[in-house]
Specification:
- There is one protein chain.
- This protein has one helix spanning 20-24, and strands at residues 37-39, 43-45, 49-64, 67-72, 77-81, 89-93, 97-102, 108-112, 116-121, 124-129, 131-132, 135-136, 140-145, 151-155, 165-169, 175-179, 185-190, 196-201, 206-211, 223-227, 240-242, 248-252, 255-259, 265-270, 275-279, 285-289, 291-298, 304-305, 308-309.
- It has one domain (37-315): TolB, C-terminal domain (Neuraminidase), CATH 2.120.10.30.
- The chain has a seven-stranded antiparallel beta sheet with strand order 6-5-4-3-27-26-25.
- It is mainly beta.
- Helices cover 2% and strands 47% of the residues.
């Protein structure tokens, strides 16, 4: 499936929003450094390779149709790159595009700070969510899907914002708010068995988990999974990814911290990061959005998405 080009008026984020302050900060110049030791069983080295640069604020990493995709939130553009970083292509304009993923039918999902969630149907982008109980969605941020048709996304507005929270769009298209306790819901991802939903709280620098039942609805209260305030370095709790063993990769202070399914920190991939996603033909590359650049890191584990391990024949499109 090719992603259609759609011309939209670029959206300029006004006011104080997640990422705006970070995007304005100068990025440290790239320096050469000796290979750093990796994380046992995860990666042989934590030194990522820059694929492309010159952007304003990259987000929404995604492997789709044999290419890397991402958005430049501040510039209002969606981009694609070949696996080796060549063939840079502008896919479309966005209105504060922030998150990308695919649903159970392989359709691309896009969240936009302008207040909507879109889905690519054929060659047409269709708005599938824009308000809840009469309130405009407040800065939809990140999105993930289950293999049964459920879609989950965050809207960055805090607990007092009628359009903010964590949302579930069920297979019939009905929207449900499943949490409104977090001050800044941001990154979102699922465990490999699709029964645990992880959500980051941006300013609080914490990751929370929420158990799901067989239909995808919450089956308990949201609870703390990882406290990123214990880490040193710059960064807030942002995007996340999960590998085939259920380990969670959480962007935040100091880089990308790796956590076991039991909540034990396994290591840190240092460097600025706003989000990350697994991909590549074998599913063993971590694609990292890093502010003004995008990077890749070779891994010893595969990613997990839509209830399966990445890198199988069905993923090589």
């Amino acid at each position: 499936m090719s992603i259609a080009r759609t011309l939209l008026v670029p959206f300029i984020c006004a006011g104080v929003v997640a990422g705006a302050a970070v995007a304005s900060q100068p990025e440290a110049p790239a320096t050469s450094s000796p290979p750093a030791p990796g994380i046992d069983g995860i990666c042989e080295s934590v030194n990522a390779t820059v694929l492309a640069g010159g952007f304003q604020f990259t987000e929404g990493p995604l492997w789709h149709d044999g290419r890397w995709h991402f958005v430049d939130l501040s510039a209002g553009k969606m981009w694609a790159l070949n696996a080796d970083g060549t063939g840079k292509e502008e896919i479309r304009s966005t209105r504060g595009g922030a998150g990308l993923n695919v649903d159970h039918e392989g359709r691309v999902l896009l969240t936009q700070f302008a207040g909507n969630v879109e889905r690519l149907e054929g060659e047409t982008w269709v708005v599938v969510a824009s308000e809840f109980e009469g309130a405009r969605l407040s800065r939809p941020n990140d999105v993930v899907a289950r293999s049964d048709g459920n879609v989950y996304f965050t809207a960055f507005g805090g607990a007092s914002d009628p359009g903010g929270g964590v949302f579930r769009m069920d297979p019939e298209g009905e929207l449900h708010r499943i949490d409104k306790t977090l001050g800044g819901p941001n990154g979102i991802t699922l465990s490999p068995d699709e029964r645990t939903l992880y959500v980051s709280d941006y300013g609080a620098r914490r990751v929370h988990s929420l158990s799901l039942d067989e239909k995808g609805a919450p089956s308990g209260e949201i609870k703390l999974f990882a406290d990123l305030t214990t880490l040193s370095g710059a960064g807030m709790a942002d995007g996340m990814a999960v590998d085939e063993h259920g380990n969670l990769y959480a962007t935040g202070p100091g880089g990308i911290s790796v956590w076991s399914p039991e909540g034990k920190q396994l290591g840190l991939i240092p460097g600025r990061a706003t989000n990350c996603a697994f991909g590549g033909e074998d599913g063993k590359t971590l694609f990292i959005t890093a502010g003004r650049s995008v990077k890749t890191l070779a891994m010893q584990v595969r990613g997990a998405a839509l209830g399966k391990v990445m890198g199988g024949a069905s993923d090589k499109k």
